[in-house]
Amino acid sequence: EVQLVESGGDLVQAGGSLRLSCAASGVTFDDYNIGWFRQAPGKEREGISCISSSDGTTYYADSVKGRFTMSSDNAKNTMYLQMNSLKPEDTAVYYCYGAFSFDVWGQGTQVTVSS
């Protein structure tokens, strides 16, 4: 069974940092696009970062560019999202995602940024 499990969500003050982790089981990242999404209350799920399997390029949404950094450790089958300079508008449930032979989503982890 393929699973993605996030961790690292927390309550943090504006300007602070968090690192989210997403551990995969039953699959390896090597040949697949992987990414992070988030969903704030009352809003649609938003793609914020992804790593392209074709060339390893990392893409970011404008809303997080320069503040968030996505990385992956394929040996550990784990992806990360380092979030710096957090803002209250970053408050959301964060999901990792893998475009494997079928789409797989993690269960989500809550990030709350207080002003």
Describe the 3D structure.
With 115 residues, the chain is mostly beta strands. It has no helices and eleven strands. Strands 2, 4, 5, 6, 9, 10 and 11 form a seven-stranded mixed sheet that branches. Strands 1-3-8-7 form a four-stranded antiparallel sheet, with no helix packed on it. The mean pLDDT is 95.
In short:
This protein is mainly β and 115 residues long.
What would the keywords be for this entry?
single chain; 53% strand; 115 residues; mainly beta; four-stranded antiparallel sheet; 11 strands; seven-stranded mixed sheet; 0% helix
SSE arrangement:
Elements: E1 3-7, E2 11-13, E3 18-25, E4 33-39, E5 46-51, E6 58-60, E7 68-73, E8 78-83, E9 92-99, E10 103-105, E11 109-114
Parallel strand pairs: 2-11
Antiparallel strand pairs: 1-3, 3-8, 4-5, 4-9, 5-6, 7-8, 9-10, 9-11
